[in-house]
Amino acid sequence: MRIAFILCLCLVSACATSDRTVLDLPDIEESSPGNADLSFSILSINDVYRIDGLASSGAGGLDRLRAIRAAVEKDHPNLLFLHGGDLLYPSFMSRLFDGTQMIDILNMMDGDDGSFDDRMFVVFGNHEFDQNSEEDVFGLQRHIFESQFNWLGSNIDFTSAMGTKISASNLQPTAMVTFGDLQVGLFGLVIGVDGVEYATFRSDTEYLKAQARSLSQDLRAAGADIVIGLTHLDIGVDEQLLRVSGGPDLIIGGHEHEALQREYNGKYVFKADADAETARLVHVTLPADGSAPIVEHSLLRIGAVEDPGLYEAVPPDPQVKARIEWWTKRTSAVFCNEIDLALDCLDDILAKAGSKLVAEELSIRGKETNVGNFIADLMAEAGRAHGDIPEGAPVVSFVNSGSLRLNQNILKNGLVNRQHIEELIQYDGPLFLIKISPDQLVEALGHSAECRISGAWLQMSGIRYTAHPNAGRATDVVVDGQPIGTEDIYAVTVQFVADPDFFGNQDGYTFRKENIVGILKDSDGSEIMLKELIYQGIDSLPVRDGFRDMNPQLDGRIQINMDSPGTPLCET
Description:
Purple Acid Phosphatase, chain A, domain 2, 5'-nucleotidase,  domain 2, 2 domains, 8-stranded mixed beta sheet, 6-stranded mixed beta sheet, 31 strands
């Protein structure tokens, strides 16, 4: 039968979180022998890079998530726990432990790290393939083997050029879960990733639409009463999958790092915020009278929140909390030992925030921020001091916000420590100097605009402009204090954006090899690395009240105009 969803707007207890409404849902009787209605529930997260919470806000934390899952399961035992991808990388801990810490903690999400969790399903995210060389296949294989849960990847061929193939009983293209008389089908689709030597991806939109239809039909033919697509795709692609005739009935996704909800013809896609700041709770009921299934949903806030709802108020799971604390102590010891500092070196105070330092993702990926300005200004200064640039030529800088991964703010008068900087820069590398035409710069700024609220959004220096996200357009462009002219522009940026031969797809930017002037080098000939540049920049700040005063300001370099007509199409 064709399944149409009814969105229930009945509010039991509403709490506002920014521009969202959070609901405490009523209890729903789960399906079991003798019950006429068939129902099940979903708890989902996505893009979770930290096992612990965000220190500045108290949000997140997989110990809290485990406690919430346990509380929900008491009321709704037919519960699926779904993860929309991006879990192994990048994180500070993963730099040291290659993602092992995340698998270890996720294995505890059912309350027993020694038993297999047949109700938990994870789809691959693009960052699962950050380790992309032929020999890295064995690391991913080990992670899958050690996972006490299921992995879904319906559009990935895990055959390497050398013939090595990943296979495991818990790695499947599709799955079926039975709750009494109800059968729930699942499949998993992931965005394409370039440069992976042990896997290939079919990820063009037309293929994904055809695959979603085919997999859904196969699952229904096998007895599924309802089909869920677990995806790690751009939201625009998810919306197209919803429109596929005969496709999935519901999509649970990831990739944007933002809690999103879309609807088409009574079918929905749901995503949560990154780092388990929120989780999606969805209840689905198929009435016995054959009427349209009912979907009720809420966005649960994870962590220290005001006016917590029923599930948000539960304390952290003590066993998971203890394991996270063990990993945290081990992280400090291993890292500090590697750089020959005291074992508590991550707590070393570098500066004091003279104003609120804004680095949480929904800000740094969508507007001018003072942390972005601070970093981009340092990059531009390095270009002027060390770049091979003709006298008088315009110099700018830009960095994709996906390279800036702290995902939390530091309040005014808060202390900035070494761990903040290590977490901020997960993809350290040399700074590149490129020479580009005015048209190339305007095109790049337009791409940044259309990719607002994604990692492709640029933080910049030496540029002022108006971004039109809906139109994917840049206007009023000023370079080095003058309206953009006809002469070439020198720009400092990161290798991921500058170099088309580097891993990835440049976040959708189209700079070419011939644009590269070179790598910035210090007076001793060493390459200037982004993270070390930030450390040096902080160390050069003036001292006030016994601390380096980190007090970058906004100056209006990015204006945003949401009134322009159009539909943004961010391709990264």
